[in-house]
Specification:
This protein is mainly alpha-helical. The chain contains eight helices and four strands. It has helices spanning 2-17, 33-41, 45-48, 58-72, 82-88, 94-104, 114-128, 143-146, and strands at residues 55-57, 79-81, 111-113, 135-137. The protein has a two-stranded antiparallel ribbon with strand order 1-4. A two-stranded antiparallel sheet has the order 2-3. α1 packs across α4 (58-72), α2 packs across α6 and α4 packs across α7. The radius of gyration is 15 Å and the shape is globular. The N and C termini lie far apart (35 Å). The relative contact order is 0.19.
Length: 152
């Protein structure tokens, strides 16, 4: 388990400091619930799809979300501040990321605890699950748009 957490910490540090951001135009950002859900879920999809079958179920969240939360919680306070959350995001878009954080913070205390994070991830999967069958497929998650081919 510790290796898994350390791997996520390393990934977040690499992504947040290596300039891997793919910022889009903030002026034309769609902050509808599905757009927010996709923005959150797409970077996590392959981790949650641990069987590599192209499907994520809400139940798989419990197996994997904590690594993301732990990696973002740099001060180990067990709460994410907005600054910690924004710093941990791979595909940065300030408008979307702030809207997601605001919705995650369900009790509006200015931070997101483990339970709020988990509940929002599950809610995001349900929102992105367009046929409402409980399975989020690669097509529903629009992974073909998120996964960019690597140029030689």
């Amino acid at each position: 388990m510790r290796l898994l957490i350390n791997t996520f910490t390393l990934l977040f540090l690499v992504y947040s400091t290596a300039g891997c951001s793919t910022k889009s135009s903030e002026a034309t950002v769609n902050t509808e619930p599905r757009s927010l859900a996709l923005h959150l879920i797409q970077p996590m999809f392959d981790t949650f799809d641990c069987e590599h079958v192209g499907i994520v179920q809400a139940g798989e969240v419990d197996e994997h979300y904590h690594g993301y939360f732990k990696a973002a919680d740099v001060d180990n306070s067990r709460d994410l501040t907005e600054q910690e959350y924004l710093r941990s995001i791979y595909d940065k878009n300030e408008t979307l990321d702030k809207a997601i954080f605001s919705q995650m913070d369900s009790n509006k205390d200015g931070s997101v605890n483990n339970k709020e994070f988990r509940n929002y991830v599950i809610q995001a999967i349900a929102t992105a699950d367009s046929d409402h069958d409980g399975d989020l497929t690669e097509q529903e998650a629009e992974m073909q748009h998120w996964r960019k081919p690597i140029s030689p």
